[in-house]
Specification:
The chain is α/β, with parallel strands linked by helices. It is built from seven helices and six strands. Strands 1-3-2-4-6-5 form a six-stranded mixed β-sheet, with helices on both faces. The protein binds iron/sulfur cluster (SF4).
């Protein structure tokens, strides 16, 4: 039986009007009342339509994506992420400040396992499952030899859920690589959060090593393979 059983049905096409998670919808309503200039709605993925690399974060940050409406834009976590994407040729500029700042991604997409801001940055398992059909559709846009970068264990687990894979068979570890059914490869990194970078759980060098591995992986597969359903 699918591990998504029990999740309420909703349209596959992502919409910023989605309210399928009552707790998160209520939380966003409160945020809109106190921060009228914030996006405070589900945050859509950003980047190429059929990327060879899809970066998967946890969820929008209160004053980052939840404010600006674009993943990892306008907060601390986005600083190291977009600087690294630029360094490795996936972005036309190193900063991501706000919508309309001219940022474009090249062969890369960025999304979150959960598209709505969760209280205390902690989505509930049912919310990860509820939002997983959107992530699954985004993963299906990758070519069969594409790469996925999971930032943190929850993003990693959400990718496994989309592929209907067991966690016990694919343990999260910084720098780990996991061959997925159909040819795609999952790369793991600690999340580039302020906490992780300030405590040096994740250093710039560690992050660059992961992107170096992804680059070598994709360079070894120069011919894009057509997307296929999971
Ligand atoms: S987290 Fe995902 S499924 Fe839940 S309300 Fe937001 S967009 Fe919809």
């Amino acid at each position: 039986m699918s591990r998504t059983a029990g999740v309420a049905q909703m349209p596959l096409r992502f919409s910023t009007a989605c309210r399928a998670c009552p707790r998160l919808a209520g939380h966003l309503q409160q945020v809109r009342e106190t921060h009228g200039d914030y996006h405070a709605r589900p945050v859509p993925p950003f980047g190429a339509e059929s990327p060879r690399l899809l970066v998967v974060g946890l969820a929008p940050g209160m004053h980052g994506a939840n404010r600006t409406g674009r993943p990892f834009t306008g907060d601390h976590a986005g600083i190291i992420l977009y600087d690294t994407l630029h360094r490795y040729g996936y972005a036309n500029q190193a900063q991501s400040v706000a919508l309309g700042d001219g940022l474009e991604l090249v062969g890369c997409g960025i999304t979150n396992a959960v598209k709505c801001l969760p209280p205390e940055n902690k989505p509930m398992p049912v919310e990860v499952r509820q939002c997983n059909r959107f992530l699954k559709a985004e993963l299906e846009s990758l070519p069969a030899d594409g790469a996925i970068l999971a930032l943190g264990a929850i993003a990693h687990q959400a990718v496994l859920l989309a592929f209907d894979l067991r966690r016990a068979d694919h343990t999260f570890a910084h720098g780990a690589q996991h061959a997925l059914p159909g040819g795609r490869t999952l790369f793991d990194s600690y999340h580039c959060s302020r906490y992780n970078t300030n405590t040096r759980r994740l250093t710039e060098a560690m992050f660059h090593e992961v992107f170096g591995a992804i680059g070598r992986h994709l360079e070894a597969r120069p011919q894009a393979v057509a997307p296929q359903r999971l």
